[in-house]
DNA sequence: AACTGGCACTCGAAACCGCGGAGTGCCAGG
DNA sequence: CCTGGCACTCCGCGGTTTCGAGTGCCAGTT
């Protein structure tokens, strides 16, 4: 176990390094923080911290920088979540309230997060699988061609084209529309399948194939396509750090273009606890010197999607966590209102 | 006027520079291209080309690189549009045909363009203002709360919430829905306003405010919100060039995050001719060493939106133009089919 | 035992230097 | 009008030097 002062030294190192982006030495430490001990003592502490793997030297006789393990200890034991200022909160609220539809909410959220944290922001669209049906609409575009429009309680709209095996009359369509809505409105997506299974049987034999086609498309949309959409922004912030590396920015940009990677980045945890993944804790090569701060958000009590930021491991964790949490809350509010 | 051979020299310089990314000298030129003259002669030609402003030296006694003006002459007079190989065409077709909805079409198009050109791809969603109405749907979410869903012939779907001043009965709603569709389906957006102006008058006085609310939201969606959405991809390609400059990648990334800038980049020309804007021809600072190749695409004869790529001025213009044009065509086809 | 001042040592970053070579401009001759 | 030759320029590269921040260790103090 590390003594109290050693922890204090680690904290000081993290803070200084985050600020200056340069390895921090014993002398600078004692000057900028009043630790009440001499540089020599700090050096001894540093040697211990290094043995334990919390800090490292880029090369002999340079200052120390925190390791992933060091950052981990920092966020677990020492870093609070810095709340935002009142002004910031108001700005968030105002900015998000101007949104006209779901796309706009997500777009604004991304911008907001990127600006607030000065890092790359990632926002997942409210997931289909965790939300519920507000309305199902069926439109006839041509005699044997329908469009299915699905509206969720989070304001998301999905549409699908359906080619029917046979023409469908308006009356049948209206009938189907009414029954469908009666059964599924208000239901969670996952609960829908059993509720509509027997629907075709209540129609004339001639119409059953068409009804079946509609249902299969509906179920496909609801369940079988967990393809989640994601929006990201603030990529320009990648250039703020990384003075040394087009070398390191490259794989990050590549990773950020992969929807799958982004989804995994945000994590699959369904509860709304904030997760911080640091450096090598990220499974993905090329994200080994980045950290991800993510949290769920939702219109109600439960999270329907996640959002977060990815930045260099040397980030201001308390500040970033504060911003992420605050934005998630406000987005949740906005979604609940619409 | 430049002699035939001087043009040939310019072409050779452009091609070599695009390939090697290094200033090209007279000797290398005569070796790689059989110009039939000696290096000394080429040097004289180069001197002339430099006087005319088509090429420049990074510093005395270095090779030459093309200026923006040089590239301009190159694409105007010398560069054809390199057609894609049959294999590439097939790949495009296959890839785009897998799309399930408009979002997916756009997403796939962006990927495709980025991969094909190895540059940053920009695709504008089919514009609202230039497309026509396929269907208007009205849903009642609560007694005095409606949702308007608008489906365009390009498959785009817009939805809006409407708060009505008074509750609306289902019959009135059905009536309104039917009349609305009868009047506007198949119409271009711009033509809609006069067609619905007198609609409120045909309803009971009690319902007119609600009808008016619906109409105003509809018109707002059709006309007053020319906010276009844009998707981009392939940002990682920015790192392929620019070995020298995180300095130059920064402003580009920033510019690419501004929807407005992107829209202007694609240009406002409504016809489907391809535009190439080179270096300083771009109004925007920070895009001064990038070129933009853009072209309109559409489901029919007329362009409903644009797409293109942005890359370094030293790009393979014929190849890029070929890819952009081909992708635009196939996307047009796909949209027409859906 | 814990802390401190002192000291020799290490090693990267920056400055400096010299050189090779690609490329140029110019000129005189075909 | 083209060409070979020639002197010149300057960048890029590798090696050396210097400088200084920072370290580890030790002996001395509290």
From TrEMBL, chains A, B:
InterPro entries hit by this protein: GAF-like_dom_sf, HrcA, HrcA_C, WH-like_DNA-bd_sf, WH_DNA-bd_sf, WHTH_transcript_rep_HrcA_IDD
Domain Heat-inducible transcription repressor HrcA C-terminal, chain residue ranges per copy: 103-321
Protein's UniProt keywords contain Electron transport: no
UniProt keyword list: Repressor, Stress response, Transcription, Transcription regulation
Domain of life: Bacteria
SUPFAM superfamilies membership: GAF domain-like, Winged helix' DNA-binding domain
Entries under NCBIfam families matching the protein: hrcA (TIGR00331)
PANTHER family registered for this protein in UniProt: HEAT-INDUCIBLE TRANSCRIPTION REPRESSOR HRCA
Family of this protein: Belongs to the HrcA family.
Function comment: Negative regulator of class I heat shock genes (grpE-dnaK-dnaJ and groELS operons). Prevents heat-shock induction of these operons.
Protein name as annotated: Heat-inducible transcription repressor HrcA
UniProt organism field: Actinacidiphila epipremni
Gene (UniProt): hrcA
């Amino acid at each position: 176990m590390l003594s109290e002062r050693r922890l204090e030294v680690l904290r000081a190192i993290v803070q200084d390094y985050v600020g200056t982006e340069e390895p921090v030495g014993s002398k600078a430490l004692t000057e900028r923080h009043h630790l009440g001990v001499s540089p020599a003592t700090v050096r001894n502490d540093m040697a211990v911290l290094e043995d334990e793997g919390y800090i490292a030297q880029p090369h002999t006789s340079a200052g120390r920088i925190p390791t992933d393990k060091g950052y981990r200890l920092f966020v677990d034991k020492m870093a609070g979540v810095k709340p935002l200022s009142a002004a910031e909160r108001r700005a968030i609220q105002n900015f998000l309230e101007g949104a006209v539809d779901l796309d706009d909410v997500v777009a604004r959220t991304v911008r907001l997060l990127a600006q607030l944290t000065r890092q790359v922001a990632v926002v997942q669209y409210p997931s289909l699988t965790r939300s519920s049906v507000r309305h199902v609409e069926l439109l006839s575009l041509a005699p044997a061609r329908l469009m299915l429009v699905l509206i969720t309680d989070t304001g998301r709209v999905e549409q699908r084209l359906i080619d029917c095996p046979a023409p469908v009359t308006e009356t049948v369509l209206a009938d189907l529309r009414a029954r469908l809505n009666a059964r599924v409105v208000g239901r969670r997506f996952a609960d829908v399948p059993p509720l509509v299974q027997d629907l075709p049987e209540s129609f004339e034999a001639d119409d059953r194939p068409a009804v079946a086609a509609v249902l299969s498309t509906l179920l496909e949309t609801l369940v079988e396509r967990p393809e989640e959409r994601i929006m990201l922004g603030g990529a320009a912030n990648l250039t703020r750090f990384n003075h040394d590396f087009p070398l390191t920015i490259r794989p990050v940009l590549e990773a950020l273009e992969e929807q799958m990677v982004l989804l995994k980045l945000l994590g699959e945890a369904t509860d709304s606890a904030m997760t911080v993944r640091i450096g090598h804790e990220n499974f993905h090569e090329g994200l080994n010197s980045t950290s991800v701060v993510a949290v769920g958000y939702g219109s109600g009590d439960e999270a329907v999607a996640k959002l977060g930021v990815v930045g260099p491991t040397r980030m201001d964790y308390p500040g970033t966590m504060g911003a992420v949490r605050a934005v998630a809350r406000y987005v949740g509010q906005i979604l609940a209102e619409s």
